[in-house]
Write a structure and sequence with these properties.
Number of strands: 11
Distance between the termini: 28 Å
CATH superfamily: DD-peptidase/beta-lactamase superfamily
Strand content: 15-25%
Order of helices and strands: EEEHHHHEEHHEEEEEEH
Oligomer: single chain
Length: 256
């Protein structure tokens, strides 16, 4: 691993930082900024959470919560909506297409206008899939963590977005196997009682966030009042399964 950087944030800003601030891929952490872009569209009346979207019977809410039944990579329907938690990159691409069509703006541009620019995340951009193609520096990911701790863009929607939606659904948490339940919010993975998990033993069940295949994560623990952001240039694997939980526990012991 040539590059690894971690920032710890509270509602007032960065409280700790280690490592360089180079631009790196965010992989599936991209879903967090894409989900927030969709929630801004909901706030503005462009789309509604319970309108039809995706496969028959599915809604925008189902797609955000990985409960639409869509397969991970294409339009194959693997389950009726609301029956299983099937982690789906394709679901986020469908959402992006819907929002882009409604606004007449490509999704990358909309994300920039409604999320990145208002938050001052000026060094981050989306270059491809709304599920996985963001790139940016740690300072922007830390800024996003602060927004999630103290929401300004969609404060009225964030409580629902960060607690279990369609609670109790069983599914596979990528890299960690079958979870029962595999709870998810509106784009935000909810720690709840999952075990094993990529956050720490001392993270509260209310912790939410996401990790990515590029060795990247962002968690927000509203009980501790902290967010932790990490960027690396080493793909997710056994090293991250072993390293991330104790790192998270160390952060909580030191700063909570």
């Amino acid at each position: 691993m040539a590059t690894a950087a971690v920032a710890v944030v509270d509602p007032d800003g960065v409280v700790a930082w280690i490592g360089p601030d180079g631009t790196l891929p965010w992989a599936s952490v991209t879903k967090l900024i894409s989900a927030l872009t969709v929630l801004v569209a909901v706030r503005d009346g462009v789309v509604a959470l319970d309108e039809p979207a995706g496969p028959p019977g599915s809604t925008v809410r189902h797609l955000l919560a990985h409960a639409s039944g869509l397969s991970p990579e294409d339009d194959t329907v693997l389950s009726p909506p609301g029956r299983r938690r099937i982690y789906s990159d394709r679901g986020y691409e469908v959402l992006a297409d819907i929002v882009a069509a409604r606004t007449g703006t490509d999704f990358a541009g909309l994300l920039d206008q409604t999320v990145l620019e208002p938050l001052g995340m000026t060094a981050t951009w989306l270059d491809g899939s709304a599920a996985s193609a963001a790139r940016g520096p740690l300072r922007d990911l830390a800024t996003f963590g602060r927004e999630l701790l103290a929401p300004t863009l969609v404060p009225g929607l964030m409580p629902e977005a960060t607690r279990p939606v369609f609670p109790g659904l069983v599914g596979v948490l990528p890299g960690y196997g079958r979870q029962a339940p595999n709870d998810w919010g509106l784009g935000f993975e909810v720690r709840d009682g999952k075990k094993p998990h990529w956050t720490g033993e001392n993270n509260s069940p209310a912790t939410f966030g996401h990790f990515g295949r590029s060795g990247t994560f962002l968690w927000v623990d509203p009980v501790a009042g902290l967010a932790c952001a990490c960027l690396t240039d080493r793909d997710f694997g056994e090293w991250s399964i072993q390293a991330w939980p104790p790192l998270s526990d160390d952060v909580l012991r030191e700063y909570a």
